[in-house]
Records
---
Amino acid sequence: MNDLGGKAYASREEALSGASAVLICSPSQHHLADLRHVVELGLHAFVEKPLAHTTDGLADVFAQADDKGLVIFHGFFLRFHPCVRRAKELIDTGKLGDPLWARALCSGYLPGWRPHQDYTQGYAADPTSGGTLLDNIHEFDVLYALLGPSQVRASVPGHSGTLEIPSEDIADVILVHDTGAQSSVHVDYVTRPAKRVTEVSGTQGRIEIDLIKRQLIFVDTNGETVEEQTYDGTFSDDYVAEMQAFLACIDGTEVPQCSNEDSAHVLNQILSARQLGGLSSHGQ
């Protein structure tokens, strides 16, 4: 650990006593309690997704952080993906016209994500704080970042039976955004090979994003390619950009791209989807 620039401590209290900021990367069910503890200590916090698996007490934590002038940085790393950033520019500048519909798909194979761990014993398998909906909350945040707030209109989570875990391993959700645009999200743990794409259609064309290939294609209403870009790098570069932004927020030179209110809205979408789909929930 020391060779990598880190330092090991015998206890949480000892580690936090010398800290000014904390990365909360614990199992999902502990995120909110850990965040509450960190804010009580007066420390800035980076919170990995999902922010929590319930909204109970969340508003109080946010209010306390605001009172103390603390940064809470929400770990939605896809906001730093160059394709997502470019898509947002095209939408915000009106080049896509009025957005009409979108769809986001995140399909992968859970046993292959962390082959050194038993996936049936990890956080993803927990039917209350795990599952593909909470785990793949990034796709909901991407649609929020591109199209704004929305309400969940339909949700169909399921169990394929192929992974033998109690949490849902496949789900489809329909959203209606405040602008009137509609979007759909498909997430799962059962697909090989992995696929992660987002499409947005507007009155002036369509944007297609392949997040894994880091490719964006913008076509007009005649099907002509207006823009096609493939960006260098990997998801690791987006994580680095995210962490640089967190440090800049602590320094006061930037503000979080995702506000507390934004993050709470996205979390509420997941909790609504879980509730509509008949999954267990700790409240909203």
Note: The first strand starts at residue 21 and ends at 24.
---
Amino acid sequence: MKSDILVVGELNVDIILNQIDGFPALGTEILADTMNVVLGSSSAIFASNSSTMGSKVAFAGKIGKDDFATKVMESLSQKAVDTSFVIIDDKVGTGATIVLNYGDNRCMVTYPGGMGCFSSSDVPDDALAKANHLHVSSPFLQPELRPGLLDLFKRAKGNGMTTSMDPQWDPAEKWDLEWEAIFEYLDVFLPNEKEILAITKAKDIEHAVAHFDALPQYLIIKQGNKGAAMLKEGQWHRHEGFENLQVIDAIGAGDSFDAGFIHAFVQGKSDMQCLRSGNLAGAINTTSEGGTGAFEDLASVKNSALSNFKETWN
């Protein structure tokens, strides 16, 4: 039986520090009142939460052979994500991100580990043949994957798959991808507002869109608690966000938006239903710590939607 979604991307843990006494300066030490070690990485959060929502999900990536790797594999397996295409390499470490969390904002330091040496050639044809949709996240954290990204999307399309990508932030701020060549094989592009402006060096969204001669079928611009905008066939569509007055943290909220949107997309839901699903998933994410804390199971997702936002899930 085919998976609904094959996720290709980075795997790491998040070491989250909360209730921090100020911001650290060189040569000084500050304290955090709480720490939590959870499944991290945009791709893994997307995969885990998509599976919780009910999509059948498989993952292709690379980790080391260490305690962090055990945490990653156990976390994905607990959410019924197929990890048979995850490569375990004892010559590398498993990636980790230190998250300094300040309410709905944060700063991060990432050790890439295995995700820095995972390439498109590590994604077997068998993985593509066994899924209906390909989702890729964080190409700028995966230097070996980036050169083969265009070929990966071509291979996916050759297998009859639909495709999506979330670029995430480029730490080098070079944004050096073959954007329009990739867009030819990309159905859904999911940057946030800050990312699309950085990619195009534009002053606003209108100028950012005009920067490209061609775009994917769906350009989704995430705007945090303001919601999201979709450009399709030259027409803009908007869906307002769902306000959470008691944000625990916003780690993974954009990835959860992606999961909600693509979960609805692969089911053939309408454009506005996809936007609503994305916005609601992103809002639910902020009700608990970490990118997957609010997605323990489908019942908890439905309960959170109703109790926090007076909305029904799907």
Note: Residues 116 and 293 are 26 Å apart (CA to CA).
